[in-house]
Amino acid sequence: MGKIRDITFDIAKGIGIVLVVIGHYIPDTAPSWYIGFVSFVYHFHMPLFFMIAGFFYERSIKKVGYWRFVRSKFERLMFPYFILSWAIIGIKILVDGFMQVDHPVSISALYRVFYLPEAGYFLWFVYVLFLIFCIAPVFKAGNRLVLLSLLSLGLAFWDTAPEYFCIEQFCLNSIFFVSGMWVARKSWIEQAIYRYSILWIVITIGFSIIYEFIPDKFWIETLAVLLGVTGSFMILGISKSLSRLTVSFVEWLKYIGTMSMTIYLFHTLFMGVVKSILTHILSGGNIIEFVFVTLFIVGTGIVCPILLYKWVWIKNKFTSRIFK
Fold this sequence. Notes:
74% of the residues lie in helices and 0% in strands. By secondary structure, the protein is mostly helical. The protein has helices at residues 2-23, 32-41, 45-59, 66-95, 109-112, 124-139, 144-155, 167-185, 187-195, 197-211, 217-243, 248-258, 260-279, 287-311, 317-322.
């Protein structure tokens, strides 16, 4: 089962990162159906990656000391966070005078990245994942996971959590990492995900519709947690079904999944450049133009980071390790 499981999770990461890239392109001229689709995938595309991370963390059998483990995660996550943050800030400051820049920054952003993802808000995921890896080892053994589950669930409803050090996003997403640990620990949960994939689709769509009409804040927050879990189950169930197919499309998804971190780190950089150029060329407002431009920009956000890795980062031992 291990080999199939690996393929399933690679495909899930492939689907997930494609949805992430799509979600990071919402132009002012976007039609309502596109905005609705993006709103739908926003319920679960990042929870999916936290769940997968929690799953493999729980399944890991390598025994290392706490500080060695944290150091390895700092190198794997925070090295690219700081390097990329400072690079993006420098590029934004340099080109701000003659190109359209999304979310312009000042020189003070160079030090604010220590407590906020100032360069690009999408980098919060890397920051939060590192924080979770700092805490999870304390609760991994035995019944401590129950305590971590209760703590994470309570934090998900902390309305006044501060943004500094990504604490707010940590509170909102740690429950999904913990959910992944439970999936890895209880085989019947994993089996239910794969066996009832259609049910997870129906439940997730149903929850997302209810979410749009419920005014009560508590139930909105509750549904946000449920949608993150059921939506992740939905993608994993679909991925399991796709893993049984021998078609090139599935192989591409699998490959994209293996490059998901590279794509995540660099997709906004390439998309931003392309958007700046196309802004001066296209008129906008035409649905056919919107579809083709969206496909082109999303495709750029997926393909160019992969090419950057294969042509540049892979040639150096350090960059090949931290950017994949």
